[in-house]
Amino acid sequence: xxxxxxxxxxxxxxxxxxxxNTKEAVVLIDNIVKLIxxxxxxxxxxxxxxxxxxxxHLNKKGFCVHGVDLSKKSLMQAKQHENKTLSFHLKDMRQxxxxxxxxxxxxxxxxxxxxxxxSDNKKVFQNIEASLKHNGYFxxxxxxxxxxxxxxxxxEQKQIDNIIFKINRRHDNKFVYKDIYITDKKNNYTFTEKxxxxxxxxxxxxSKNLNIKLIDIFGDYSLxxxxxELSDRLIMIFQKNND
Length: 243
Ligand SMILES: C[S@@+](CC[C@H](N)C(=O)[O-])C[C@H]1O[C@@H](n2cnc3c(N)ncnc32)[C@H](O)[C@@H]1O
Fold this sequence. Notes:
The protein is α/β, with parallel strands linked by helices. The chain folds into two domains: 3-146 and 199-240, Rossmann fold (3-Layer(aba) Sandwich); 148-194, no CATH class. The protein contains eight helices and eleven strands. The chain has helices spanning 3-7, 11-16, 22-36, 53-60, 72-79, 118-131, 145-150, 200-207; strands spanning 43-47, 64-69, 86-90, 102-107, 132-143, 155-160, 163-171, 175-184, 187-196, 212-218, 233-240. It has a seven-stranded mixed beta sheet with strand order 3-2-1-4-5-11-10, sandwiched between helices. Strand 7 (163-171) and strand 8 form a beta hairpin. The protein is globular and about 55 Å long. The termini are far apart. The structure holds S-adenosylmethionine. S-adenosylmethionine is lined by residues 4, 8, 48-50, 53, 68-71, 74, 92-94, 108-111, 114.
């Protein structure tokens, strides 16, 4: 089993990241919607939707949303919010494709770069391009790999709900790894997150020979300008050209 199928489906992932909450999702979604002003009846795809925090807020704003994820547990939570215009689906983003269907596709909070083979990342970009309507937008929110490597906090310990998380971080020239050692009562568990260090140029490269073009780039959830050294996030807006 791949690390991302295991870790994101575990309760410990949700406990460790529970501070990444609705409030944060609301800020980002409100700013994205303000920026691209999608039509009233626009259809969104939230690729790697998790428990659906961004999808649910988009739907509250009146948009139709499909959420797609690999984690059954996350989807079970998300599905409690389903309605006529909001639905969640168990799919792998490498296989998922819904031809020319979406006005906007979002991939938020580093839901990309998990695969061993870089060709899988390219495959996801191909699926996104094929799934977008003409002039549709693709918004990806990833970490700024320059900053992640430079400021890597090698060791960290957290206690949440009486569970101890010891986190060791390391990187090589391709990936950043987070080894997570968990002690819950007397039981110990270990998970490793492994995310490819993708920079702006590599993302542009994934879009090469596809019908999507980078039109804007931001460095945080308030959508301030991106700075290669200082920004925490790398938020890229692509638009599909007419084909
Ligand atoms: C860091 S979480 C972010 C979840 C959500 N976007 C959020 O901000 O709350 C990444 C999500 O991507 C999902 N994921 C990982 N690999 C996937 C794949 N191959 N296809 C679809 N979803 C995937 C995980 O299950 C997880 O829910």
